[in-house]
Amino acid sequence: MTSHLPTPAQTIEERFLRHIFVRDQMSEWSKSPLVMERADGVYYWDINGKKYFDGIAGIYTVAVGHNNRRVIDAIRQQLDVLHFSPPMHGTNPVAVQLANLLAEVAPPGLSAVKFECGGSEVNEAAFKLARQYHRLTGNPGKYKILSRYMSWHGSTMGALAASGLKGRKTVNEPLPGGFLKVFPPTCYRCPYGKQYSECGITCATIIESVIEMEDPSTVAAIIVEPIGHTGGVIDPPEEYLPILRQICDKHNILLIFDEVITGFGRTGQMFAAQTFGVTPDVICTGKGMSGGFVPLSAMICKQSIADKFWGPIEENPGFVEGHTWEGGPVASAVGIAMIQEIMERDLLKNSREQGARLRQGLERLSEKHGVIGDIRGKALFQAIEFVSDKQTKAQFPAKPGFGVKVGKRALQHGLLCRFDPHWIALGPALTVTAEEIDEMLAILDRSLGEILAEG
User: Fold this and answer.
1) What gap in Å lies between CA 185 and CA 201, rounded to an integer?
2) Beta-carbon count within 10 A of 34 CB
3) What is the C-alpha end-to-end distance of the chain, expressed in Å?
4) What is the mean pLDDT of residues 359-367?
5) 382 Cβ partners below 8 Å, 6+ apart?
């Protein structure tokens, strides 16, 4: 067979790029394609040798840094023993070990694990768990899933139906039914026109009204990101999640935390549930769990829920959900190495400390440039929202978008960040140092100043 593989240098040529989809509009992206060739620590190098500071850990995934030797060694060692086990017939020792380790680091009571490959899969599994759990416990009419606008739970059809972004949903509609939406807790721009703390936390209490209008006997679960990403890192008021916990307890509804982003140290604790002091019924996690080395995610539920799936096979089929790659031995070895790296190097503490340094730096930028209206998030998951007037909170025009212009200029100067028309988010690896935080802030400072100077 004759090989027609392009050389690394050729992979930025349009004739070869036409054979692959990326997330952007291909005709526009291919004018200046970004193709990464290698990485180490908190840095990437593209195919042309240009260096980039990875300010979003790939996409909040590379939790312990690129080229982490402990994780790479764990992969190599496992490959020599067992690279795949038959998922239809059972599991493997490494998956059992990882499940037990997750039970140790998760909030108390959450100790039963279902492995998946990514965020979409794991959220879909949680929806299935909720519906099957209610069916097994005598409430088969509970099937509706309540989620929020401006949320993102994944690209598969069920996860997409739970998501609240019109730009990603409309092109794929109609989507599966049984999904309801409420407004998110965006205190800076309250959808109810109120001011915290005189608002009565309407964003949370109104959820019970929605449930009552729908009929509680039809609602199976509520899924929320403890800190929502796609709306600009929506950090809820401290009363919000406890109120959701109370509502779910009252109406026999499962509370699901989508911690695909916020899990594994991103908010300064292993899970955001611990950061906020609220224990859900189910945690869905991924991204940082794998460090970006392999596809890996996990649904962690309360043992009391998992126990309902044990019983005579004539009456109870167990949890009806499965994927080819779930709980693979190589992926499980990665998960174990990731947790060990986070715990033994005390990266949770580093996340909090460097997150505080990042917040201080963003506050300085706000004072210097006068266009940062709000700073949100926790630890190494933070965002700034841009405004043309701090007093009125007036935004810049949506197109081309001030945040997009700043983000693209930062990319030119070698900083990868998450940018939208009105905001920019940062979330480097948990291994980031104080000097690296300062380097990242310096590039953002320069980029912001240049865009403002250009008018």
Assistant:
1) 8
2) 16
3) 56
4) 98
5) 233, 355, 358, 359, 362, 375, 376, 425, 426, 427
Strands 297-302 and 381-386: unpaired
Q: Is the bond preceding 174 in cis, omega lying within 30 degrees of 0? A: yes
Say which residue the tokens 């190098």 belong to.
45
What size, in residues, is the chain?
A: 455
Per-residue confidence (pLDDT) for residue 2, from 0 to 100: 56
Q: Which residues contact 123 (CB under 8 A, 6 or more apart)?
A: 153, 154, 158, 159, 162, 223, 256, 258, 260, 284
SS3 327: coil
Burial class for 216, CB neighbours closer than 10 Å (0-12, 13-18, 19+): middle
For residue 277, give every residue at least 6 positions away whose Cβ sits within 8 Å of its Cβ, in sequence order, or none: 242
Domains of the chain plus CATH, in order, are 34-64+347-454 (3.90.1150.10), 70-344 (3.40.640.10)
Residues paired with residue 301 on neighbouring β-strands, in sequence order: 112, 282
CA separation for the pair 142, 330 (Å, rounded):
37
Could you tell me the sign of the dihedral formed by the alpha carbons of 65, 68, 71, 72, in that order? Answer: positive
Are the C-beta atoms of residues 331 and 295 closer than 8 Å to each other? Answer: yes
- Calculate helix-pair angle for 93-105, 329-344, nearest 10 degrees: 30
The CA distance from 307 to 139, in Å, is: 16
DSSP for residue 317: -
Give me the amino acid identity at 309. Answer: F
Distance CA 386, CA 448 (A): 10
pLDDT at position 1: 53
Q: Indicate the range of 58-72, 245-259, 314-328 predicted with least confidence.
A: 314-328
Reported as a single tens digit per residue, the pLDDT across 375-417 is 999 999 999 999 999 999 999 999 989 999 999 999 999 999 9
Alpha helix (H) ranges present in 239-344? Answer: 240-251, 272-276, 303-306, 329-344
Q: Which is nearest to 129 in space by CA: 121, 107, 247? A: 121
Angle at 288 between CA 285 and CA 294, to 5 degrees: 95
Q: How many CB atoms lie within 10 A of CB 177?
A: 8
Residue 143 burial by Cβ neighbours in a 10 Å radius (0-12, 13-18, 19+):
middle
Instruction: Give per-residue pLDDT as tens, 29-49.
Output: 777 888 899 999 999 999 999
Non-local CB neighbours of 175 within 8 Å, separated by 6+ positions: 157, 160, 161, 169
